[in-house]
């Protein structure tokens, strides 16, 4: 779409093209592995709103949401892979937001049709339930990210050897473990 993401040093390489190519290769590889059924958030050059991305994953009952990005820095010497999971501060804000909006929200516990909506619980119970689910999702995100980092060590340069935690919109699903992979620069 209209957002190219980071632009390469030559002014022509666009993050959106690089990450779509990486995502397609990853999808193709996973499709050939037993037990995996990858789903793409986008298949072409168009923009998908941040809040729609986890919803697409949720509709396909995803076990893991992986956002592929290409980092940038003003110096050409920067390089390496970084993996992010949701920070605890962002999780707390998201949990509170979900409970505050629960009457007008379709947020679900478990994330799929037929599960209980937050609106069926009083605020204290809803906050406890969504906090427990978010804690589980964050833990699983860290586990998945750690395994991926371990598998990349020795294959690619790691900018950070531990999963980083950040306040990124795309990672805030309480029902789907989510990671963002900055593939390099």
Overall pLDDT, averaged? Answer: 82
Distance between the termini: 21 Å
Helix content: 25-40%
User: How are strands sequenced across the largest beta sheet?
Assistant: 1-4-2-3
Structural class: alpha/beta
- Please report which band the strand proportion falls in: under 5%, 5-15%, 15-25%, 25-35%, 35-45% or over 45%: 5-15%
The helix-strand sequence is: HHEEHHEE
Q: In summary, what is this structure?
A:
This protein has 185 residues and is an alpha/beta fold. It has helices at residues 15-31, 52-59, 88-100, 123-152; strands spanning 65-69, 82-86, 164-166, 178-182.
Describe this entry's structure for a reader.
The chain has 185 residues and is α/β, with parallel strands linked by helices. The chain has four helices and four strands, in the order ααββααββ. Strands 1-4-2-3 form a four-stranded mixed sheet. Helix 3 packs antiparallel against helix 4. The longest helix is centred in the last third of the chain and has 30 residues. It is globular, with a radius of gyration of 17 Å. The two termini are 21 Å apart. The mean pLDDT is 82.
